[in-house]
């Protein structure tokens, strides 16, 4: 594929130490889908789903060992629309690298989760399944500054979220300044919400969300009440799946050849305006996500870029601004041999000569070794 790359993109790869041979593996990568409501299905239901998907796809379909709920379809040219399981809403398209970023957060039922760059919402839907609990429902707050992409996210939620729809709220807002805290305890209890409204009539009038310039697009009734939205609670888990140049997403890069034109890959994807602006944006998103995270909580920073400027250097800058006692990069449980490991190979992160060992636990999914799309993932404990 890279024979077609414009000179600007080749220069970008060179400056960012990205070996163009990464793009050679595109043809051989499998296609991945995620089983919706995986935890609620029995083993035999899952086997049936795998078998049906295999018949429709006409090639090998297997569960991804170690990453619960993901199926690997051997032939990447299989179209989702040809799968009955997709048409019925039993599976959604999602690369396993994105699944690993979500699993790296170790969400527990009942957690309040913030997804600061959420659209179109593949990770948000999985987060909602992970924190949903029937006795103490958690919550997922999705934020994205593109109203167009938030609309797509809403459609995805309506189609696939099922009961977890009740714990999701979406904001069309800038993640670098977003400031709405996690819902208060008992946000889901109508009596608590009613009692609060009766006792706090002035607070109710003052706390008009539109005044915060953060527009709530989609939230179930109780989650959109002033009671739920005016709390001071911080989040248990924060995902900063930051805007990036997408150079690690081989499917995305291929679209330049198939739909958008290779010339745009030079100007649009990695023009100098963008490459200068993006790491600044990423750092600001990371800082704001950190501000909204509870002490003891976990933040995952991820991008689908392979560029050091958007990954190790953003993380390094962040760690330089916070002491070791404040922020600690932890190993990602799925890659931890003591926990069995998920069997997906990762490359060590790039470590600047001058830096200590702080970055060693972050991971690079490089398509040449991981057999997935490219992704950088760092798990940071507060
Ligand atoms: C890599 S995509 C996120 C993918 C998403 N997490 C998913 O799994 O579907 C990055 C997103 O960041 C959003 N974005 C860019 N700048 C932003 C900002 N300042 N605040 C919030 N979102 C932003 C983009 O609109 C885009 O939807």
Automatic annotation (TrEMBL):
Sample GO molecular function, one term: RNA methyltransferase activity
Active-site residue list: 304 (nucleophile)
InterPro entries linked: MeTrfase_RsmB-F_NOP2_cat, MeTrfase_RsmB-F_NOP2_dom, RCMT, RCMT_subfamily_9, SAM-dependent_MTases_sf
UniProt record similarity statement: Belongs to the class I-like SAM-binding methyltransferase superfamily. RsmB/NOP family.
Listed name of the protein: S-adenosyl-L-methionine-dependent methyltransferase
Coiled-coil parts of chain: none
Keyword Transferase among record annotations: yes
Record-linked PANTHER family: NOP2 YEAST -RELATED NOL1/NOP2/FMU SUN DOMAIN-CONTAINING (PTHR22807), SAM-DEPENDENT MTASE RSMB_NOP-TYPE DOMAIN-CONTAINING PROTEIN (PTHR22807:SF16)
Keyword terms: Methyltransferase, RNA-binding, S-adenosyl-L-methionine, Transferase
GO terms of biological process kind: RNA methylation
SAM-dependent MTase RsmB/NOP-type domain residues: 21-382
Record: residues binding S-adenosyl-L-methionine: 144, 174, 241
Lineage of the organism: Eukaryota, Fungi, Fungi incertae sedis, Zoopagomycota, Kickxellomycotina
């Amino acid at each position: 594929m890279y024979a077609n790359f414009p000179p600007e993109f080749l220069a970008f790869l060179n400056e960012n130490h990205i070996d163009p041979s990464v793009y050679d593996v595109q043809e051989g990568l499998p296609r991945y889908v995620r089983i919706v409501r995986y935890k609620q299905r029995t083993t035999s239901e899952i086997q049936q789903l795998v078998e049906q998907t295999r018949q429709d796809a006409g090639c090998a379909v297997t569960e991804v060992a170690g990453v619960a709920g993901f199926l690997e379809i051997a032939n990447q040219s299989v179209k989702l629309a040809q799968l009955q399981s997709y048409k019925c809403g039993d599976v959604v398209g999602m690369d396993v690298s994105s699944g690993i970023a979500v699993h790296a957060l170790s969400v527990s039922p009942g957690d309040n989760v913030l997804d600061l760059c959420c659209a179109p919402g593949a990770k948000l839907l999985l987060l909602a399944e992970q924190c949903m609990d029937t006795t103490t429902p958690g919550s997922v707050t999705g934020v994205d500054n593109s109203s167009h992409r938030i609309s797509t996210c809403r459609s995805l939620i309506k189609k696939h979220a099922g009961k977890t729809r009740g714990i999701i709220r979406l904001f069309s807002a800038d993640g670098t300044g977003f400031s709405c805290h996690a819902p208060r305890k008992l946000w889901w209890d109508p009596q608590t919400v009613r009692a609060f409204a009766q006792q706090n009539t002035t607070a109710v009038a003052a706390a008009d969300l539109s005044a915060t310039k953060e527009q709530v697009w989609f939230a179930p009734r109780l989650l959109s009440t002033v009671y739920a939205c005016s709390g001071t609670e911080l989040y248990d888990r924060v995902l900063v799946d930051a805007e990036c140049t997408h150079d690690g997403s081989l499917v995305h890069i291929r679209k330049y050849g198939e739909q958008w034109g290779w010339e745009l890959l030079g100007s649009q994807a990695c023009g100098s305006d963008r490459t200068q602006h993006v790491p600044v944006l990423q750092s600001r998103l990371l800082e704001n996500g950190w501000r909204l995270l509870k002490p003891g909580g976990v933040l995952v920073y991820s991008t689908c870029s392979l560029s050091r400027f958007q990954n190790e250097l953003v993380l390094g800058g962040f760690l330089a601004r916070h002491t070791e006692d404040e922020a600690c990069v932890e190993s990602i449980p799925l890659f931890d041999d003591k926990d069995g490991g998920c069997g997906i190979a990762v490359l060590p992160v790039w470590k600047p000569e001058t830096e200590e060992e702080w970055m060693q636990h972050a991971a690079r999914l490089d398509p040449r070794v991981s057999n997935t799309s490219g992704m950088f993932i760092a798990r940071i404990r507060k």
